[in-house]
């Protein structure tokens, strides 16, 4: 894994994102309610590291990524790139930010203009940022295609002429052509076959080393995030409930939700989990978040304290944080392998 330099280049502080819900007449009679997509999320990206953001569908991880990029405005909180806050950036600073922080979409085909050839698609950001003349831009396009494992002649094809794996390489090429410092990868391999997934992940790791990239890797796949990440944040219902270096997290998961996620994955060999935990019921509606700990409605160890007080994300062990009143090494371990059912 790439070693972090421990120098934060992007900081997310108390980020909130709420989407308004309107009634049958739209905005005419005002807001009916709010969907709490992201609630009080804070973390840092250190230069050269890969930070994995993991959670079930609907946990808010993709919204977090889009809010960090400014594609979705934050309701509350701050996103700091270096020493500058995203919402306080001037037009020129924001243009530089767009150049240095890029996004790889989950579905590359929907993000590629079907009416344009690949060369034109890749050249477009260079034209917007006024980088090089036509010959230099064309050479850059050919070069970046070779960097991601494609051929220069692919620049003259249309998006529909490529396979799923090739389109994901094109998504990477479009992000890399600006020589960014940070890439946000939003479920970049979830729609690919396992063999193609490994090719894209290995390519990402190689490019990270060669180009000194920092990655925010958003996924729901535990095995994928373990392979590529230096640190991992576990999201549940819009909140980060646990954060730790990858090896520490898999060696000793401290939050009951993390343990439930890991117990559903075939044994990794180093995990200390013994029990099989079956989560029953659905995630509570983000329209009405439960009081106290957001996981207490599905947690077998929940007490009255969990129902009434929200646990802070606190450091339990060095660099290992968990948002649980009772999180401690060995607290949730069992003596014998058993199966626990958690009623929804």
Can you offer a commentary on this structure?
Helix content is 29%, strand content 27%. It is α/β, with parallel strands linked by helices and 344 residues long. It has a domain at 237-344. It has an 8-stranded mixed sheet with strand order 6-7-8-3-9-10-13-12, with helices on both faces. Strands 2-1-4-5 form a 4-stranded antiparallel sheet. α3 crosses α4. It starts with 7 loop residues before the first strand and ends with a strand. Mean pLDDT is 87; it is low at 1-5 and 334-344. Pfam families: ABC_tran, oligo_HPY.
Question: Helices, strands, pairings?
Answer:
Elements: E1 8-23, E2 26-46, E3 50-54, H1 61-68, E4 76-81, E5 84-85, H2 91-100, E6 101-104, H3 118-128, H4 134-147, H5 164-176, E7 182-186, H6 194-211, E8 214-219, H7 222-228, E9 231-236, E10 239-245, H8 246-251, H9 256-263, E11 276-279, H10 304-308, E12 314-317, E13 320-322, E14 339-342
Parallel strand pairs: 3-8, 3-9, 6-7, 7-8, 11-14
Antiparallel strand pairs: 1-2, 1-4, 4-5, 9-10, 10-13, 12-13
Which key features would you list for this structure?
344 residues; alpha/beta; eight-stranded mixed sheet; 29% helix; disordered C terminus
Query: First CA to last CA: what distance?
Result: 38 Å
Globular, elongated, flat, extended or rod-shaped: what is the shape? globular
**Percentage of residues assigned to helices:** 25-40%
Strand percentage lies at: 25-35%
H and E string = EEEHEEHEHHHEHEHEEHHEHEEE
Tally of strands? 14
Alpha carbon gyration radius:
21 Å
Question: Major sheet: size, sense and barrel closure?
Answer: 8 strands, mixed
Q: Which stretches are low in confidence, meaning pLDDT under 50 for 5 or more residues running?
A: 1-5, 334-344
């Amino acid at each position: 894994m790439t070693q972090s330099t421990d120098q934060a280049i992007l900081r997310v502080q108390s980020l909130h994102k709420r989407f308004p819900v309107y009634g049958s007449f739209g905005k005419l009679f005002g807001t009916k309610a709010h969907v709490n997509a992201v609630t009080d999320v804070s973390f840092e990206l250190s230069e050269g590291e890969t930070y994995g953001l993991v959670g079930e569908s609907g946990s808010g991880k993709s919204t977090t990524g889009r809010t960090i990029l400014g594609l979705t405005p934050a309701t509350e909180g701050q996103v700091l790139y270096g020493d500058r806050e995203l919402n306080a950036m001037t037009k020129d600073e924001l243009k530089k930010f767009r150049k240095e922080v890029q996004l790889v979409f989950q579905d590359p085909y929907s993000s590629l203009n079907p009416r344009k050839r690949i060369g034109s698609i890749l050249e477009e950001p260079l034209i917007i940022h006024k980088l090089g003349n036509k010959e230099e831009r064309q050479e850059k396009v050919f070069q970046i295609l070779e960097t991601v494992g494609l051929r220069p002649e692919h620049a003259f094809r249309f998006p529909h002429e490529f396979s799923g794996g090739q389109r994901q390489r094109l998504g990477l090429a479009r992000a890399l052509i600006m020589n960014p410092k940070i890439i946000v990868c939003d479920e970049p391999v979830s729609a690919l076959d396992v063999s193609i997934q490994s090719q894209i992940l290995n390519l990402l790791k190689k490019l990270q080393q060669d180009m000194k990239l920092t990655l925010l890797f958003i996924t729901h796949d535990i095995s994928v995030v373990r392979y590529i990440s230096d640190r991992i944040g576990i999201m549940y219902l819009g909140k980060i409930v646990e954060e730790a270096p990858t090896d520490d997290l898999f060696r000793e998961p401290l939050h009951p939700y993390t343990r439930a996620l890991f117990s559903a994955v075939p044994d990794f060999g180093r995990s200390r989990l013994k029990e099989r935990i079956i989560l029953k019921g659905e995630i509570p509606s983000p329209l009405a978040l439960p009081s106290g700990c957001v996981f207490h409605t599905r947690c077998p160890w929940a007490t009255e304290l969990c129902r009434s007080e929200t646990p802070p994300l606190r450091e339990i062990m060095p660099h290992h944080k968990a948002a649980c009143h009772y999180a401690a090494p060995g607290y949730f371990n069992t003596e014998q392998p058993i199966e626990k059912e958690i009623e929804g």
